[in-house]
């Protein structure tokens, strides 16, 4: 009987550890020895733009490539160029008008106050990451170096941008094979497929546009069959596991006051945030509300809610 009890304890402990292990697919990490391909000197272009950049410029963290200048207001200095040595251009990672990608936050139309609070949380250590070594570490160091004026300028700029849909959610049992580059997945393009299982695989539809930091780049997020409907039910009622999302995030999950918009954002990013609220890596001002909300969510629930939110049309956030 003692042996059986010990085995049960070990099994429970193993299950607990597994539950607390960040899902690798949500936190893609560049493989050891990863090096981007060298710049061959060829100027880069994207459709519907007369601009050109070298690959070296597109990898310069103090440059925000502007391909479509008529589509957004003039960038403040901190968004366009940052400040050397350690305040990188906001538009480098998040793109010129803030759509970001699966590896970071979509900032378009978020409340300026919310953006300022997140920078304060990065700076204080209240907002961390479950997998150190990824690009969140850059945000932490940047937040510590940025001035209040720089943070306010960036927040005001991105909050004024009208959100637009950049991700397409597709339910499927199998997905094209991928590889990891720059903290996100990309298609191998060899026609091979693999089982999706209980995960989300989000990739740029046209890798070259995303690599060029084109704000017109779009993404496809492959999610398990039934995810959107399951997520809709959870978001609407809580399903006995949580509370209705619209109570805080507004009708259509488009945000309300200083609570951020979820609609139309990267589902991979959203899963990371739910996981990090649950496991204490996000402990900022709003964590007291989110912690009990996510406490009983399994990873499958997080996938479903995130897939549903990502499938919704984005709208400019009501900050009143």
How would you describe this protein?
By secondary structure, the chain is mainly α. It has a single domain, classed as Cytochrome Bc1 Complex, Chain D, domain 2 (Orthogonal Bundle). It is built from 13 helices and 7 strands. The protein has helices spanning 2-19, 55-58, 77-80, 90-94, 112-124, 136-145, 148-159, 207-211, 227-237, 246-249, 267-278, 287-294, 299-311, and strands at residues 167-171, 174-176, 178-181, 184-187, 193-195, 201-204, 219-223. The strands form 3 sheets. The chain has a 3-stranded mixed beta sheet with strand order 1-7-6. A two-stranded antiparallel ribbon has the order 2-5. β3 (178-181) and β4 (184-187) form a beta hairpin. α5 (112-124) packs across α6 (136-145), α11 (267-278) crosses α12 and α11 packs across α13 (299-311). The chain starts with a helix and ends in a 9-residue tail after the last helix. 41% of the residues are buried.
From the structure above, extract its key features.
single chain, 320 residues, mainly alpha, three-stranded mixed β-sheet, 7 strands, 37% helix
Query: Quick one: how many beta strands?
Result: 7
In spatial order, strands of the major sheet run 1-7-6
Mean pLDDT: 93
H/E series, N to C?
Answer: HHHHHHHEEEEEEHEHHHHH
Query: What is the gyration radius calculated from CA atoms?
Result: 20 Å
Say what the CATH topology is: Cytochrome Bc1 Complex, Chain D, domain 2
Morphology: globular
- The CATH class is identified as Mainly Alpha
Distance linking N and C termini: 62 Å
CATH superfamily membership, which one? Cytochrome c-like domain
Question: What amount of the residues lies in strands?
Answer: 5-15%
Largest sheet geometry: 3 strands, mixed
Counted up, domains total: 1
Percent range for helical residues?
Answer: 25-40%
Q: What CATH architecture label applies? A: Orthogonal Bundle
Counting helices, strands and paired strands, the structural category is mainly alpha
Summed up, the helix count is: 13
């Amino acid at each position: 009987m003692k042996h059986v009890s010990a085995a049960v304890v070990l099994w429970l402990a193993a299950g607990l550890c597994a539950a607390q292990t960040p899902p690798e697919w949500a936190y893609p990490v560049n493989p050891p020895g990863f090096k981007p391909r060298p710049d061959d000197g060829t100027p880069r272009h994207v459709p519907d733009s007369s601009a050109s950049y070298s690959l070296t410029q597109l990898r310069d963290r103090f440059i925000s490539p502007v391909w479509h200048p008529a589509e957004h207001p003039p960038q403040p200095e901190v968004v366009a160029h940052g400040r050397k040595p350690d305040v990188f251009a906001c538009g480098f990672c998040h793109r010129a008008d803030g759509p970001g990608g699966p590896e970071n936050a979509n900032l378009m139309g978020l409340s300026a106050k919310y953006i300022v609070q997140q920078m304060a949380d990065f700076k204080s250590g209240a907002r961390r990451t479950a997998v150190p070594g990824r690009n969140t570490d850059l945000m932490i160091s940047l937040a510590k170096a940025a001035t209040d004026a720089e943070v306010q300028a960036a927040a005001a700029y991105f909050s004024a941008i009208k959100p637009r849909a950049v991700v397409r959610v597709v339910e499927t049992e199998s997905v094209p094979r991928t590889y990891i580059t720059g903290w996100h997945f990309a298609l191998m393009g060899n026609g091979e497929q693999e089982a999706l299982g209980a995960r989300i695989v989000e990739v740029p539809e046209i890798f070259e546009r995303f690599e060029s930091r084109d704000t017109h780049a779009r993404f496809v997020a492959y999610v398990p069959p039934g995810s959107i409907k399951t997520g809709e039910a959870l978001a609407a009622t809580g399903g006995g596991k949580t509370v209705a999302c619209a109570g805080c995030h507004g009708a259509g999950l488009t945000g309300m006051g200083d609570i951020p918009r979820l609609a139309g954002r990267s589902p991979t990013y959203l899963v990371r945030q739910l996981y990090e609220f649950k496991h204490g890596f996000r402990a900022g001002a709003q964590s007291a509300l989110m912690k009990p909300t996510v406490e009983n969510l399994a990873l499958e629930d997080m996938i479903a809610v995130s897939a549903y939110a990502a499938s919704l049309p984005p709208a400019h956030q009501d900050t009143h």
